[in-house]
Design a protein that fits this description.
The strands form 2 sheets. The chain has a 4-stranded antiparallel beta sheet with strand order 1-2-3-4, with helices on one face. Strands 5-7-6 form a 3-stranded antiparallel beta sheet. The protein is elongated. It is of the alpha+beta class and 387 residues long. 57% of the residues lie in helices and 12% in strands.
Length: 387
């Protein structure tokens, strides 16, 4: 230790000698040394972080990557803030320039800002690493993206508010006075920005109640709103309609309307009415029985749900029976494939019995003894030709 101190003194005397040789003051040499050490520390830090990142990329854990990525740039900024502030203090101690008198509080604010930046990036990276970790393990269904994003936003807002109060306290402002002013100002701002605040609280309720999440198909009978939810923001929710046009809905609207979420349906329903001809009255019972038996053995029909096939109406020109059942799938495309298969099988059953699906017809009943006189077409024209 003593030898190291002696070597440092010798190096310092050497620098002082060179500085005097070129007419430099001692404080200028100190500033030069501080800046040089900052550059050296920055270079060493970058090389060290690059090596550590190479090691962590080989691991399966996402958490170490999140930490290193978050600390990289804020730590470099912190080194420069501290180094430049020390150099400025050296200059102030020699020159007494008023501009350098504010360096200590500014340095403290810079340190707080660097830490805040690091924590902001860390929260964002942890949020992303958690989601990627679940997806990478094939457990994407366990990830509640809305809740994770909401917690991340709340943590970042809390971080910014806390850092701002600490920075104000460091600069000499009274935090209690700031909070009191904030309470009074909050009332005025609340009246001025009523709609904005209602949308923010509406977004908070969406995060807490979760009537829908990003990716859900929603619709409202109260408003002309239907489409896929793309993003739930603090003020607006972006919904993409099926014609690919976006709708931006203020969050406060969802507190006053009923929202249907078809994405959370457990089954899809097939509800169809089919009419047979009146000439097929004797075949209706057998057709209905076979249709019901077909549905009870269909692999894509959920037998645990309500299944009904019944003759239920004498229509104007048909004998109507209905089918009421539920598919196992909720996927839109697959549902229509199942429904098509069911309807074609019903058509085969009807055809097998020699029956036909009815279409609108009218029958004209003539009184006994009344006949329609048939005249050959173009009779008048033919008579003229014979004259």
């Amino acid at each position: 230790m003593d030898k190291l101190s002696q070597d440092m003194q010798v190096a310092w005397q050497w620098l002082v000698g060179i500085g005097k040789q070129y007419g430099l003051a001692g404080w200028a040499i100190q500033v030069f040394v501080i800046v040089f050490l900052v550059l050296l520390a920055d270079w060493i830090l970058r090389r060290l972080l690059i090596r550590i990142q190479r090691r962590t990329k080989q691991t399966r854990s996402h958490w170490d990557d999140a930490l290193l990525e978050a600390i990289d740039r804020p730590l470099t900024t912190l080194i420069w803030v501290v180094g430049i502030s020390f150099a400025a203090e050296v200059i102030y101690s020699e020159t007494k320039a008023a501009i350098f008198a504010a360096i200590p509080p500014l340095r403290d604010v810079g340190v707080i800002a660097s830490l805040t930046w690091f924590l902001w990036r860390l929260i964002r990276n942890v949020e992303r690493a958690y989601i990627e970790g679940k997806v990478g393990k094939g457990r994407e269904g366990e990830v509640d993206r809305v809740t994770v994003e909401a917690l991340g936003k709340l943590l970042r807002i809390s971080l910014v508010v806390t850092s701002t109060l600490v920075a104000l306290q460091t600069l000499g402002f009274s935090v209690s006075g700031v909070l009191a002013f904030g309470g009074i100002g909050g009332i005025a701002i609340g009246f001025a920005a009523k709609d904005l605040l209602s949308n923010v609280f509406g977004g908070l309720m969406l995060y807490l109640d979760r009537p829908f999440v990003a990716g859900d198909w929603i619709r409202s009978a109260d408003r002309e709103i239907e489409g896929t939810v793309e993003e739930i923001g603090w003020r607006l929710t972006r919904i993409r309609k099926f014609d690919k046009r976006p709708i931006y809905v203020p969050n406060a609207i969802f507190a006053t309307i009923a929202v249907e979420n078809p994405s959370r349906m457990t089954h899809r329903r097939i509800y169809e009415t089919i009419g047979l001809r009146y000439d097929d009255l004797a075949k209706v019972e057998a057709v209905v029985a076979d249709v019901k038996a077909m549905l009870e053995t269909h692999p894509d029909i959920d037998q645990s749900q309500t299944l009904m096939v019944n003759f239920n109406a004498f229509g104007a020109s048909s004998l109507d029976f209905f089918i009421y059942t539920f598919t196992r799938t909720t996927e839109w495309k697959r549902y229509h494939e199942v429904k098509q298969d069911v309807l074609l099988k019903i058509a085969d059953i009807i055809d097998r019995y020699g029956a036909e699906v009815a279409f609108p017809t009218r029958t004209l009943h003539m009184p006994d003894g009344l006949k329609l006189q048939e005249e050959p077409a173009f009779a008048g024209l033919q008579g003229k030709e014979t004259q």
